[in-house]
Design goal:
With about 525 residues, the chain is α+β, with helices and mostly antiparallel strands. It contains 13 helices and 14 strands. It folds into 2 domains: about 270 residues, no CATH class; about 240 residues, Beta Barrel (Porin), CATH 2.40.160. The strands form 2 sheets. It has a 12-stranded antiparallel barrel with strand order 3-4-5-6-7-8-9-10-11-12-13-14. It has a two-stranded antiparallel ribbon with strand order 1-2. β6 and β7 form a beta hairpin. The protein starts with a helix and ends in an 11-residue tail after the last strand.
Length: about 525
């Protein structure tokens, strides 16, 4: 792939990051989620079935025809959150009970054809914009790739490590929104990536691209699909039309299926009342230490926009972890210095809940993760499987400790950002670990800290004889000012120690301190109270 793919992925992803604000407004989930629906007060309703929520196209048509302002009906769980206990106990219309369940009309053929069509269009767009001969695919190049040994490539880092995972997330979204479950969709994602490597380009198929699109794409795609579904399910007063738009921006392939197939794929994937906490932060940071190494560009100050969500936090009564990503964490930080400072997601693939006494609730199992980190000096991307646990412990009546600990193995890529050459760009098997903690002091303040470490070895496809040890840690303190509005101070530290046979040893280090305005999705900083 070339610059065309880079621009395509960047533009779509930036739109996605903006749309994620809509999920922040959802707040911390409490109680079983129920669908929202819209009705009009006119007698000539354009929606053909009153027992099924209207599609985006139908809402648009109603507004164009001037058939009245749609009225929004809030589910009981949301009314209960707002304090309207009387309204929350009122019986709901038959629509909630009669609506089809997600997956009732699932299709295996539709996402397969969509993935093929998507790859064809991507190939043509890249060919037209870039002018590269890499996209001149013929029957002969396909047969050659089928016979060829898989290699690794050194396409631009952002293409391989961000563009490919996002491309894989599109495959995953096509399958998920067509009613398929996670593992079925992961299979489509993996095979879709194989198809692209064989027939999307005439260059030799690459192992690194397959890992990024075929595996990381599912990890990223499932998080985006869940957040998109959450917007549709619990829009918190957002009009139907704008919920559809926001959901499509977060997961474009989900939005496409809802628009193209209407009622067939209209049922919304249920969160099953997952307890979640979201946060949007806007602020500035300044470097307190900067060892650039071979990086040639340096911006001491940067403007940042950070969005994060934890979904399925342990402790919610009756919530079960029976589906992959019933717990997941997602974070994306946009930077004025280099577009994305990080994109991080991890989810519980297989696991179970446990408890210790009255004050501790947790989950443990196998996690899948996709990490993309780019703090101006170096870049690392990792796709990994880890064993770990996530839990919450009430230390006192008002103080809770939440945390996640993970250790696992991944396949990672490391590069110098704005380096003087490409020699430091290499892949390797990467043992890694994560420890994240957050102290919650009632509804007034929170103190959080996260540490990550990656050892990128010279073992595995794409090794260049180099090794990297990368460490990253942050500490933040957040003070609630009023309702969902807070102020936060954050310290971030990154360090890379590299050893290459042809370059010797080198160190890159950057630390920053920043101040942020924070809009929180709830007033409890994500603490689950089951007592």
């Amino acid at each position: 792939m070339r610059n065309a793919h880079t621009r395509r992925a960047s533009l779509v992803a930036q739109g996605t990051a903006v749309a994620l604000f809509s999920t922040c407004a959802l707040g911390a989930g409490a109680g079983q989620s129920e669908p929202l629906w819209i009705s009009t007060t006119t007698s000539s309703d354009p929606y053909p079935r009153p027992d099924v929520p209207p599609t985006l196209a139908q809402v648009w048509l109603a507004q164009r025809q001037g058939l009245g302002e749609p009225s929004l009906h809030l589910p009981a769980a949301m009314l209960a959150q707002s304090g309207d206990s009387t309204a929350a106990t009122r019986s709901q219309p038959a629509i909630a009970a009669s609506a089809l369940k997600f997956g009732a009309n699932k299709s295996y053929s539709i996402p397969a054809m969509e993935i093929l069509g998507f790859d064809f269009l991507l190939n043509r767009i890249n060919h037209h914009v870039s002018g590269s001969s890499d996209y001149d695919v013929t029957g002969e190049t396909i047969r050659s790739n089928l016979r060829a040994n898989w290699a690794t490539d050194n396409d631009p880092y952002q293409v391989n490590q961000f563009g490919h995972p996002y491309q894989g997330s599109m495959y995953h979204g096509f399958a998920r929104s067509a009613g398929l479950d996670y593992w079925e969709s992961a299979g489509y994602t993996f095979l879709g990536s194989v198809g692209w490597e064989i027939a999307g380009e005439k260059t030799r198929p690459a192992v690194n691209d397959q890992v990024a699109s075929g595996i990381a794409g599912s990890f990223l795609g499932e998080a985006l699909f869940r957040m998109s579904s959450l917007v549709l399910e619990q829009g918190n007063g957002m009009p139907k039309f704008w919920r559809e738009v926001a959901a499509a921006a977060i997961s474009p392939s989900t939005g496409f299926n809802r628009l193209a197939y209407g009622e067939r794929f209209n049922p919304v994937f249920s969160s099953r009342g997952a307890y979640y906490y979201s946060r949007l932060q806007l602020g500035m940071s300044a470097a307190t230490r900067d060892v650039q190494g071979t990086s040639t560009v340096h911006k001491p100050n940067e403007v940042l926009a950070d969005y994060s969500m934890e979904y399925g936090l342990p402790g919610k009564a009756g919530y079960e972890y029976t589906r992959p990503f019933d717990y997941f964490s997602f974070q994306a930080t946009a930077s004025s210095a280099n577009v994305f400072e990080n994109i991080l997601t991890r989810g519980l693939l297989v696991g179970r809940s446990y408890e210790k006494g009255r004050d501790f609730r947790g989950i443990w199992g196998l996690y899948g993760s996709y990490d993309y980190i780019s703090p101006q000096t170096y870049r690392i991307s990792s796709t990994a499987l880890s064993l770990g646990t996530t839990g919450q412990w009430w230390l006192s009546k008002d103080v809770a400790l939440q945390g996640t600990a993970m250790m696992g193995m991944g396949y990672a890529a490391v590069s110098t950002l704005h380096g003087s050459g490409t020699d430091e760009y290499h892949y390797g098997v990467a043992p890694q670990a994560l420890l994240a903690m957050r102290f919650v002091f009632g509804n007034r303040a929170a103190l959080g800290a996260t540490a990550r470490e990656y050892f990128v070895s010279d073992v595995g496809p794409g090794g260049t004889g180099g090794r990297d040890n990368i460490a990253r840690a942050d500490v933040s303190f957040t003070w609630r000012v009023a309702k969902q509005h807070s102020v936060a101070i954050k310290y971030l530290w990154n360090r890379r120690d590299a050893t290459y046979s042809f370059l010797g040893d080198g160190t890159q280090e950057r630390s920053t301190i920043g101040i942020f305005y924070s809009y929180d999705g709830g007033t409890d900083f994500g603490a689950v109270d089951w007592r």
